[in-house]
Amino acid sequence: MEKLARYRQLVQQMLAEYGKQKPAYGDITVETIFDTERDHYQIVHVGWEGQNWVHSCIIHIDIKNGKIWLQWNGTEDDIAADLVALGVPKEDIVLGFQSPFMRQFTEYAVG
Description:
38% strand; globular; single chain; alpha+beta; 5 strands; 5-stranded mixed sheet
């Protein structure tokens, strides 16, 4: 339970920082979404860019079975490396956006 609480805290801390970054274009609101009951965490952009409606998930992270799953990363940053820098072992990070077959070739967990 201690590890889960720590991972929740680290993910929320990291996403809170990403949530401070407002896009340079459009009238976009950055929403930081923390579902701590089901361990789903997201950064979502919502608003208008000119005449176009924007609704986009920028980052999606889940915590499942004691591991941090990077489900989506729409940033230029290496979120997995950021988690490692915060002390999360690579074997507890899953690149969920990679196919299960390809995960074996990464330096992170396969699932």
